[in-house]
Amino acid sequence: MEGKIILKKISKEYCILKVKLTEDMNILPGQFVMLSHPLKKELSKPFSVMDFEDGVLTFFVKIVGKFSKLLSELKENDILNIKGPLGVPYINKIDKNLKYVLVGGGCGAVSLIYFKKIYPNLVENELYGFKNSSIRKIFEHKSLFIDEESGNPLDKLDTILKEKNGIIFCGSKGMQKALLNKYPNKKIYMSLEENMGCGEGMCKGCPVMTTNGVKMVCKDGPLFDSKEVLEWKD
């Protein structure tokens, strides 16, 4: 399907795009779509959804490579090609008897913000870390944590995490490892970030070794119980 950009916000490192769909879609937190540029339809990349309301998808893009730079250069009324929804909703993978602290690093915050909107009763608290305050040019949130202002976000997590809480995390592998080392006995779900080709498990480009054998992050995830994952593809 296609979508028209109706709003764009941009900073030095990030870009927010609001895209009005031409067809109906039902997408839940944790699912993602494959976006392709109107001039490079053969190339697509996976993007999580920060919000979905009244047929409008909100994307939060970190400008780090050629494709994301191309997206950031699009203008309002430009058309994107969209395939989705893909992946398994978070709600299908978690223990619904727990309340969670949502921990996101950079763009990892995106799917968690949408999760809080749809399932507020499952959320105890939120913590979204960014390296510097330039993010405030386009995005502000009560749970925003700026590294250069406040230090290590995991120190902040100590002050808001209750004994009975689980954690849903999405962010860098470095932060992921630190979180697992800090809370080895916590119920932690990890939303994995991997390079994807097709988004449907056919190309086998995003394997992860689990206690139940090899799974594809795109088709079987992106969310996994941290105890289920044995290793990540290098």
TrEMBL record:
Transport among keywords: yes
Domain spans labelled FAD-binding FR-type: 1-92
Entries under Pfam families matching the protein: DHODB_Fe-S_bind (PF10418), FAD_binding_6 (PF00970)
Cofactor(s) named in the record: [2Fe-2S] cluster
GO biological process, one term: pyrimidine nucleotide biosynthetic process
Annotated keywords: 2Fe-2S, Electron transport, FAD, Flavoprotein, Iron, Iron-sulfur, Metal-binding, Transport
Cofactor-binding details, from the entry: Binds 1 [2Fe-2S] cluster per subunit.
Gene Ontology MF terms: 2 iron, 2 sulfur cluster binding; flavin adenine dinucleotide binding; metal ion binding; oxidoreductase activity
Binding-site residues for [2Fe-2S] cluster, renumbered to this chain: C198, C203, C206, C218
Sequence similarity: Belongs to the PyrK family.
Protein name: Dihydroorotate dehydrogenase
Organism: Tepiditoga spiralis
